Amino acid sequence: MPTNDEDWRQRLTPEQYRVTREAGTEPPFSGEYNEHFEEGVYHCVCCDHPLFDSGSKFHSGCGWPSFDSELDEAGIEQRADTSHGMRRVELLCSNCKAHLGHIFDDGPPPTGKRYCINSAALTFKGGRG
User: Fold this and answer.
1) Which residue among 44, 46, 93, 116 is the active-site one?
2) What is the pLDDT of residue 128?
3) 5-126, superfamily in CATH?
């Protein structure tokens, strides 16, 4: 795994770097995984850590991939985010601290959560196992 900024820049595309290493956000409805509903697992684009199962993905209409729960082993970190004049909860990969997106309390039952994730922060591995 990269250990410094230059290594990350070489490993990631400019958009992946901007989103994951600089806490950027891709434009709504532009991401590769927004309307993606194949069976499999979504991983961190930076370190390949498993984050979300496709069974937790739902169509939220917000313009970004949305999940109602994370994998047990994901251990996604949450921290307060007051940027852009808003009060939100930022989500970070527990393995490499990549910015993934934000979490909101407007998701479907049973969790009521909406993990709003940038496609640029994800890779996808189809199937089970």
Assistant:
1) 116
2) 60
3) Peptide methionine sulfoxide reductase. (2.170.150.20)
Is 46 in the active site? no
Which ranges in 57-114 belong to alpha helices (H)? none
Question: What's the mean pLDDT when you consider all of the chain?
Answer: 94
Find all residues with CB under 8 Å of 118, minimum gap 6, and list them: 19, 20, 24, 25, 26, 31, 64, 65, 99, 100, 101
pLDDT digits (tens, 9 = 90+) for 87-96: 999 999 999 9
Ranges of H-type helices in 3-119: 5-11, 14-21
Q: Tell me the domain boundaries of the chain.
A: 5-126
pLDDT digits (tens, 9 = 90+) for 16-38: 999 999 999 999 999 999 999 99
